[in-house]
Amino acid sequence: KKGCPVPIKDLAYVTVSHWNFNEQIVSGELVCHKNLAEEMVQIFLELFEGSYPMNKMVLIDNYDASDYRSMDDNNTWSFCMKDVEGEPGILSKHSYGGAVDINPVQNPYIKDDKILPESGRKYVDRTQDVPGLIKDGDLCCQAFIKRGYVWGGHVSYLKDYQHFHKVPEDFI
């Protein structure tokens, strides 16, 4: 898109195997910044080896680049040029290829009374033992945190449980 901060030559297409919610091994795909591609492979290998489930992982292009439609379908994804939720004109870390959203239904975005996706409302209670629900210190959280990612569950003014990111200055 016009105004994208990362040229296409700096993006990488990554395929990984992952466990789905039916305990089947499936192939997933995402696009991220090329400088993070090997790290993404390592993260998703660690999650695969730990049998961490993801509903699906397809390119956001399958949703016409709509993160809302992707969230509604419980899709794990990375790169998409978009603004920060509720902050028009401020580019999201996804726009740089440095963010990943995992199982958005089980790990909703919550700010005040806004919950995205709406179907994630039943997962606001983070004490539940639900496959794919990210908790502080679990396998998924640690796989990203130990590599320098920030988890949206650690943010004080909102909770974006699906979201992990690095700031562009750390990888561009």
How large a portion of the residues is in β-strands, by DSSP E?
A: 15-25%
- What is the helix/strand order? EEHHEEEEEHEEE
**Mean pLDDT figure:** 96
Helix/strand class = alpha+beta
Helix content: 10-25%
Which spans have pLDDT < 50 for at least 5 consecutive residues? none
Quick overview:
With 172 residues, the chain is of the alpha+beta class.
Descriptive account of the structure:
The protein has 172 residues and is an alpha+beta fold. Helices cover 15% and strands 24% of the residues. It has helices at 37-49, 67-72, 139-145; strands at residues 11-19, 25-33, 83-84, 87-91, 99-101, 109-111, 114-116, 150-151, 159-160, 163-165. A 3-stranded antiparallel β-sheet has the order 5-10-8, covered by helices on one side. A 3-stranded antiparallel β-sheet has the order 7-6-9. Strands 1-2 form a two-stranded antiparallel sheet. A hairpin with a 5-residue loop joins strand 1 and strand 2. Helix 1 (37-49) runs antiparallel to helix 3. The longest helix is centred in the N-terminal third of the chain and has 13 residues, at 37-49.
